[in-house]
Structure formats: C-alpha cells, structure tokens
Specification:
Elements lengths: L6 E10 L6 E11 L4 E5 L6 H8 L7 E6 L2 E2 L5 H8 L2 E5 L10 H12 L7 H11 L15 H13 L5 E5 L7 H17 L3 E5 L11 E6 L2 E5 L3
Parallel strand pairs: 3-8, 3-9, 6-7, 7-8
Antiparallel strand pairs: 1-2, 1-4, 4-5, 9-10
Helix pairs in contact: 3-4, 3-5, 4-5
Length: 230
C-alpha cells in the first residue's frame, strides 16, 4: 500500500505512578507502521506492548516523545482532537464488551453511532453488511447470551469495522477463541488491509497467527528488542 504512514512513533517514553513510586514502562520506542499492513506486537506480560498500543490509539496521553497518528501529533493533543481521531479508529479487545440486552445487530449499530461517519439512512444496512462479512448473517437478532464465544468476538470485530476505520487496534483479540475462530478474525483483518488499506496493529501472545502478520515487533522491559520490518 502506498501513501504516508498512518503511524509514526519517535522517541516514545512513558511512566506510571508518581513521586517515589514513579516507574518508567516504555523506553525510546521508535516505530513506523505502513498503510494496509498487519503489525503484531509481541512480548511477555509487562513488556509494554499494550501500553504502546494504547498510546498509539489515543487511549492514553503521550508524556514524552512523539506519536504521529493519521497526520496528527498526539503529544500535547487536546480532548477534541483525540475524540475526532478515535472516530477514525476501530478497537477490538480480548473481552468482547457486548451489551447483553442488545442483539448482535444493535451492538454493531452502537459502533455506527460512535464513528458518526455513516449517513443515518444507511446505518442499519452498514451494520448488517458488517455482520455478514464476519459470517453472522443468520445471527443478527441473537442476544450475546445465545452466541458462542467465537461468535461474540466476531460481533465485536463487526462493531469495530462498521465505520470503515483507517486503523484497527486489537489487544489479544484471539485469546479466548479456538484456533479456527482466531485465524478467521486475523485473516479478515489482513484482507481488509489488502482491499481497503485498513492498517491493523495487534497485541498477541498467540503464536498460531504469526504467519499471517506482515511484521512482528517484539518488546521486552519496555524496549523493542526485535523487529522483522527493519
């Protein structure tokens, strides 16, 4: 894919805590992510991969260094810019976070409202299309309690993708899935990169899906120790 990189991270540092309890968690991370690619962040628990993901995704304030997301600098960005950028992103987490009282279709419609980029007259059609893409055309009116774990996660994927985001941030999206369901989710994200130019950054411990990644970045103790894209 051509075009300016949607994510450029330069000299990123991050700390948690205050005073004597303050501890540095991220050390001088530099990372450029190209459009349409599937980048996997790996590393042991506590290595900083989820922290890096949340910093790139406007879910945590950048304290030191630079994160350039979709042409905008996040260091020092205000709430208005962060909120505008989040509407251009998709988020998938290990916990599907579906509303139990809403059907699969209604849960995906919640994603439409968050993005705010779809004409009101076509929102329902967009939600149905997203669910069809993830193989749930026959489960649209099911409540989460009547869906399997894999189906719930696919609803969460449809919700993240319904607004056609520029970048998808996924934190352990396959952890609760069997191999086939997990591979289906990752293959779908990879296909979106090829067809739509959607960029995906994924945190995972799942070695089973590494062969699908365009690039694998390994972190240890808050530092990048290996990068197959360099």
């Amino acid at each position: 894919m051509t075009g300016a990189p949607p994510i450029i991270v330069t000299g990123l540092n991050h700390w948690f805590g205050t005073g004597e309890a303050r501890k540095q968690a991220i050390f001088d991370v530099n990372l450029t992510v190209m459009r349409g690619t599937l980048t996997v962040l790996m590393g042991p628990s506590g290595s900083g991969k989820t922290t890096v993901l949340t910093l790139m995704g406007c879910l945590r304030d950048v304290q030191d260094g630079s994160v350039h997301l979709l042409g905008h600098e996040l260091h020092g960005a205000g709430r208005e810019l962060n909120e505008a950028l989040r509407r251009r992103l998709g988020f998938i987490f290990q916990a599907h976070n579906l509303h139990g009282s809403l059907t699969a279709l209604q849960n995906v419609l919640m994603g439409v409202l968050v993005h705010g980029s779809i004409d009101p007259g076509t929102q329902a059609a967009a939600a149905r299309h997203a669910l069809t893409l993830v193989g749930l055309a026959d489960r649209m009116n099911y409540l989460p309690a009547n869906l399997s774990g894999g189906q719930k996660q696919r609803v969460a994927v449809a919700r993240a993708l319904v607004g056609n985001p520029d970048v998808v941030f996924a934190d352990e999206p396959t952890a609760a899935l069997d191999h086939e369901s997990g591979a289906t989710v990752v293959q779908m994200l990879k296909r979106l990169g090829q067809v739509r130019g959607t960029t995906t950054v994924m945190v995972t411990h799942d070695n089973r899906i590494l062969e699908l990644a365009d690039r694998i970045v390994t972190l240890e103790d808050g530092r990048i120790v290996n990068d197959t894209g360099v």
